[in-house]
Amino acid sequence: MKQLLEDIKTGQFRQAYLLYGQEAYLRSQYRDRLKNAMTQEGDTMNFSSFQGKDINPAQIIDLAETMPFFAERRVILIQDSGWFKKGGEALADYLKSPAPTAFFIFAEAEIDKRSRLFKAVKETGCAVEFSTQDETTLKRWILGRIKKENKTISQAGLELFLQKTGSDMENIDRELEKLFCYTLPKDAITEADIEAVCTQQMSGKIFDMIEAVAAGKQQEALQLYYDLLALKEPPMRILFLIGRQFSLLVQVKELRAKGYDNRRIGEKTGLHGFIAGKYVSQSSRFEMSVLKEALADCVKTDEAVKNGRMNDRLGVEMLIVRYSGISGK
């Protein structure tokens, strides 16, 4: 990252940049900063953009060999090509001796560091990973955005907001914009404001559903399920997320039994600290045997639906009914 920022600041660019990782918001932000620094505004003659897995490498190389039109460089942006996992060999060879006026920006969610193209970019230019940000970084970023709008938020409000949005920065950005518009005449963002306008992520709704199951609130759990169906969520996707939830609860309960605190549990399961504590609390509502049985039933239901022995909607409903009220400490 330091090298990328230095290159943008000085205007001394390398011939290839790879921006990769699961944090799409940061990836796109730095993609645009790099592109804007390397090209003149509105210059469509010397900037080309390609996206997807059907890009022809030979076409890219031909374009790279074409002299720029009254400009220092020709900039080629390639996104989501999959070439850093398979198929990038021709471009990897080209990058060993590219045209001096050809500059590449690659943006990919997933890469294989063993690929020839990755190694070629590392040798020729710069590769920067944008991974999911930790809790502290996210909070600092959100508070910075809120301060810029001359607003304030309480610690409890910040926690609630993150519980609603999850850790995806693109989603956080969208929800912040909604909040800023909703609280335009106000100085402070309250928990009531967040409840009023922020959309809870699917994983949060599944968490609430399992929480209702754990508390024996069968009607509430079923209503949450029906709400998801009304939002056109496929029953099999809901089933997958229920299974994932029970799997996480098994892991959390096992780690808690070994004496791990919430922070360490979060690190080992990939849950942010502000969420890990809630999972610890939820897991305590179930016996381990019940969690493992529920996880096995999710697998059985999935198989039964796929084999045509059970209706998908009914299968998930039966799971919810079965485990409502049978949790124990």
Automatic annotation (TrEMBL):
Domain DNA polymerase III delta subunit-like C-terminal span(s) in chain numbering: 205-323
One GO cellular component term, please give it. DNA polymerase III complex
Presence of the UniProt keyword Nucleotide-binding in the record: no
Annotated GO biological processes are: DNA-templated DNA replication
EC number(s): the record gives: 2.7.7.7
Keywords for the protein's UniProt record, in alphabetical order: DNA replication, DNA-directed DNA polymerase, Nucleotidyltransferase, Transferase
Pfam (any one): DNA_pol3_delta
Q: What class of enzyme is it?
A: transferase
- DNA polymerase III delta N-terminal domain mapped to chain residues: 17-130
Record's InterPro entries? DNA_pol3_clamp-load_cplx_C, DNA_pol3_delta-like_C, DNA_pol3_delta_N, DNA_polIII_delta, P-loop_NTPase
Q: Which reaction does it catalyse?
A: DNA(n) + a 2'-deoxyribonucleoside 5'-triphosphate = DNA(n+1) + diphosphate
Could you cite one Gene Ontology molecular function of this protein? DNA binding
The family classification in the record reads: Belongs to the DNA polymerase HolA subunit family.
Query: What is the protein's name according to its record?
Result: DNA polymerase III subunit delta
Q: Give the source lineage, highest ranks first.
A: Bacteria, Bacillati, Bacillota, Clostridia, Lachnospirales
